[in-house]
Structure formats: C-alpha cells, structure tokens
Fold this protein.
Amino acid sequence: MTVLWPILWLQSMYVRRITPRMPEPPGRRAGSAGRGPLVRLLVAGDSGAAGVGAPTQDQALCGQLVRCLSQHHTVHWCVLAANGLDSPGLLKLLEEAPSARFDVVVLSIGANDATGLLSPLRWARWQDRLAALIDHRFEPALLVHSAVPPMHACLALPQPLRWFMGCWAQQMNETLAGLLPVRGGRIVHWHPETTTKSGMAEDGIHPSSAGYAAWAEGLSPQILARVAALPSV
C-alpha cells in the first residue's frame, strides 16, 4: 500500500482540479404533501442531502422520499444541508438550526469525511455525537444513517484511487454498523449499487435524479415500517 500513496495523492489532486463543482438544485426546502397520518421528516447532511446532481429539489433525495411517503402519509418535510459538509460541519449546522420535533431524520454524511481520510472509528464516533445532538434537539423516533456512498462506483475517480476510496468507505460503513445499539431508533441504510451512468450525475460522483429515486425507493419501506408502529403517528 505504501508504494501507492504517491499515485493516490496525485490522482486525488487531479480529480479535485478537473471535476466541475455542481450547484445545489433550486426548489423549496420545506413544505407539506400527501394525505393520511402525519410524518415529520428531516433530511440533513452534505451534497447528497442537498440534492446535488438533481435538476430540482423535487427530484433530489428529500423530494423523492416525500413522493414515496406521501402515498400513505401527510408529510411535513425539511432539508438542512450544504454542499461540502463533513461531520463536524453538519454538527455545527444542526446546532444552529431551530429545535423542532421530527419523527424521522435521514442523514447523508461521510463522503467528505472519507476524502479527508477520517478514520472509520473516528467517523463512527462523530455519528454518535450527531445522534446525541439530534436526539436532544429533534427527538426523532427513527434516525437513519445513510451509508457512505459506494465510492468504488464513482466514475470520476481513476483507478486505483476509486478502489482505495471504495475500500475506505466500506470500512467506515461496517464500523458504524457494528457500533450501533442492537435496539433503538438508529439504523444504517446501505446505498444501492450504483455502477452505471444511469444512476449518476454528469460529474460522475453525485447521484442523478434516477439515483436519488433508487435511494428513496430503497429507504422508504424501512421508514414506513417504523412509523407504522409509532402510536403518535
């Protein structure tokens, strides 16, 4: 592995230089939709939560989740996210947000921690800090940690950097999953294996609207199963 470090460093610098920075999509970041029992949804985090790669917020992660959940529930939803956030940055963002009650909080965070080579164990401990803050300020019945994306499928990353980042992200996810309480309101949701251009945006890093749809369609049944058991919903 040591012999690869110069190659990995050069490739990472090259990718940072040539990869276009896509904007966060336009659209509302809070609202209501659907009919039925109420579910209050917060989507928070980095560029994935902000919907980078989708043309509008309706086609981003939160919009796609609202589309799925609103077929069964009235959904009050909110997005708190910014492109480029890592775990410490998200903690600060949530500390500064007004306290509110949400039934479900979905986190998308970790890709920038991974590119910063934050160790898997330290990253998992940051997720514990985020969970404690979220429990205190938002009181969700369910906290979803979206796994670090499958970076081995990021087409913008050349080999062997793509392989290395994929392994690093996998270790981060496995460490977090192994440290989560056996019981409680926290789960890890693993991304679908996005390995084709149809699920990725033009930059080869972020999901496209189709990628966000697959993400939401895989996650929404877990949310629906949890909220169905809640007496308050």
